[in-house]
Structures are given as structure tokens and as C-alpha cells.
């Protein structure tokens, strides 16, 4: 009895990997075994960097808030501490946006916290 290979499923699996490798350079997009490794590695990076992106953006927001706060004679840590004491619930993303796009509003927040 001949060996069953299930060509349909294996072809579909290869086709999916080659589709994901589209746009890769050289053999990475042409040769199945090479493409398979690079697609797998790319998916690992994507998974890892979805977590890293959150960290990176928080660092950016904190740096922007700190720079803007220092222009108004305070520091990031004093500003956040003051917000917590006054029970103002505003997140770092919004604070950073205010600092960059609406400096007068940010100045009002700093004045409210320091008073």
C-alpha cells in the first residue's frame, strides 16, 4: 500500500509561510526552508516588541513631562506627587500631549499642583 502524504495540507502550509515571507530579501522570500526560519524569527520579534513598545512610550512620555515641568520650575517627580496628593487622575500620555501641544494648559496644571 502506498504511503499517504496529504499533499493538500502540506502545500497549504508552505503557501502560508511563503505568503508571510513576501517582501523579504533574497532567499528569505524564495526558498521555503530559509523563509520558514525568518518568518518564525520575525513573529518572535513581533511578540517581544509588542511588549517593548509600551515600555518605550512610557519612557518618552515621562521624558517630555519632565522637560516641560522643569521649564515651569518643578520636576517630574514633584509634579506626579502633587497630582496624586490633589487626587487628580490624569495619565502620563495625556500630560505629555498637553506638554507638547498645549503648553498653556500644562502650565495651568503645574500651577494647580504647586499651589
Please provide a written account of the structure:
This protein is an all-alpha fold and 115 residues long. It has one domain (9-114): c-terminal domain of poly(a) binding protein. It is 78% helix and 0% strand. The chain has helices at 7-20, 27-30, 32-71, 76-85, 92-101, 103-114. α1 (7-20) packs parallel to α3, α3 (32-71) packs across α5 and α5 packs across α6. The longest helix has 40 residues, at 32-71. It is rod-shaped. The N and C termini lie far apart (88 Å). The mean pLDDT is 94.
Key traits:
rod-shaped, 115 residues, single chain, mainly alpha, c-terminal domain of poly(a) binding protein
Provide a brief overview of the structure.
By secondary structure, the protein is mainly α. It has one domain: Ribosomal protein L20, C-terminal domain (c-terminal domain of poly(a) binding protein, Orthogonal Bundle), CATH 1.10.1900. The protein has 6 helices and no strands.
Domains counted in the coordinates: how many? 1
Assign the CATH class.
Mainly Alpha
CATH architecture level-2 label:
Orthogonal Bundle
Number of strands: 0
Q: C-alpha Rg, in Å? A: 26 Å
Q: Please, what is the oligomeric state?
A: single chain
Element layout with pairings:
Elements: H1 7-20, H2 27-30, H3 32-71, H4 76-85, H5 92-101, H6 103-114
Amino acid at each position: 500500500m502506498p504511503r499517504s502524504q496529504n499533499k493538500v495540507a502540506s502545500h497549504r502550509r508552505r503557501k502560508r509561510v511563503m505568503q508571510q515571507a513576501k517582501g523579504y530579501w533574497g532567499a528569505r522570500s524564495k526558498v521555503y526552508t530559509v523563509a520558514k526560519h525568518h518568518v518564525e524569527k520575525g513573529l518572535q520579534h513581533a511578540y517581544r516588541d509588542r511588549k517593548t513598545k509600551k515600555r518605550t512610550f512610557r519612557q518618552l512620555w515621562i521624558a517630555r513631562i519632565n522637560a516641560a515641568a522643569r521649564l515651569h520650575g518643578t520636576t517630574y517627580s514633584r509634579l506626579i506627587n502633587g497630582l496624586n496628593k490633589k487626587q487628580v487622575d490624569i495619565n502620563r500620555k495625556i500630560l505629555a500631549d498637553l506638554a507638547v501641544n498645549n503648553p498653556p494648559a500644562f502650565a495651568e496644571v503645574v500651577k494647580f499642583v504647586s499651589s
